[in-house]
Amino acid sequence: MRTPTVREAAEAWESLFRAQVAVMRRLSRDPAFRRLGIKEYDVLFTLSACPGGGLRLNELNDHVLLAQSSLSRLVERLDKQGLVTRESAPEDGRGIVVRLTDAGRGLQREIGRAHVREIARILDGALDSEELAALQRLTARLREHVVANHPL
Amino acid sequence: MRTPTVREAAEAWESLFRAQVAVMRRLSRDPAFRRLGIKEYDVLFTLSACPGGGLRLNELNDHVLLAQSSLSRLVERLDKQGLVTRESAPEDGRGIVVRLTDAGRGLQREIGRAHVREIARILDGALDSEELAALQRLTARLREHVVANHPL
DNA sequence: GCAGGATAGATGCATTTGCATCTACTTGAA
DNA sequence: TTCAAGTAGATGCAAATGCATCTATCCTGC
Fold it and tell me: How many angstroms separate the CA atoms of A26 and A76, rounded?
């Protein structure tokens, strides 16, 4: 229960980051992403997991590692491909609500099925069930804390 | 000790990935990276942590989330800035050994000091010492397993 | 020794990215 | 109300990225 040292924090982050690189590099090679890049998929996935089915651009931006302008254009491309729609936000004339089309939802599900299988394949044998749960719990708390205490 | 389900693996990965996005997004904003991008810094850091002080381009590439051609040009830029040197590999005429210059080592240390402090600041209060250690252990094992069992 | 395949890295080129900036809209205080 | 400051996204433009391909070198079996 000690307060962590600077070194402990840096080493844990470094380890987390390298693991992410190793896994992501392999996941990106999945042929499932030939039809749609992994960042584009990530946007569709985030939208699919959203209760209302619509998200503001700036909310979307919190989930993706892209500059605001890059996300703006990525969503524009998805729109042109017919995978999402962009409507003006009802309560804020500046805002844009992004929403999955049926085609977008269909493609997300299709890619998602293959992607989830690939994740399981890559992680298979690395950690047991309890360890995966611990990892999930720790990273979720890390994220929550960071989001809550360090606004952008 | 159960074997994980596909769902458990996918959810743990998702959580790890989102935490990485949240932390990385905030770390990138550090003014320490005004002099040198975070990817460029990452290459200098990887070189600085290397015993011999030199690394082959393809070894470097394992640590960074960049295509081979992108890393090739990133290192070319670092070379032009006088931060690294590129020599032909002694045992393999095709290979390039990348090595920090004194300037490169100096800049890495300078940015690194600020960066480590910023990591500690961002993570502060999120996890205690034991939890950070657990996170490090789990992610290190994940990475090792993935690297060992899924060559690129 | 040599031909065929594999591997390391460089390069042309189209696409994507981020920075700076711009416009439009909202908010809050006088 | 009005106006200054703040926020949401879009856009021009230069830089970075990835794909496909190219060259050079290495390795393997004959």
Answer: 27
> Which nucleotides of strand C lie within 7 A of protein CB?
7-12, 16-20, 24-27
The ranges assigned to domains in chain B are 6-119
User: Is the Cα dihedral A5, A7, A10, A12 positive or negative?
Assistant: negative
Chain B contact set for A152 (CB, 8 A): 25-26, 29
**φ and ψ at residue B115, rounded to 5 degrees:** -65, -45
Token output for B4: 């994980």
Q: In the CATH scheme, what architecture does the domain A10-121 have? A: Orthogonal Bundle (1.10)
Looking at domain B6-119, its CATH class is mainly alpha
Q: What is the distance in angstroms between the Cα of A61 and the nearest Cα belonging to chain B?
A: 10
What's residue B1's pLDDT? Answer: 65
Distance CA B146, CA B59 (A): 16
Average pLDDT, chain B: 95
Predicted local confidence at residue A1, as pLDDT: 65
How far in angstroms lies nucleotide D6's C1' from the CA of residue B116? 32
pLDDT level of residue A53 (50, 70, 90 thresholds):
confident
Nearest CA to A102 among A47, A34, A40?
A47
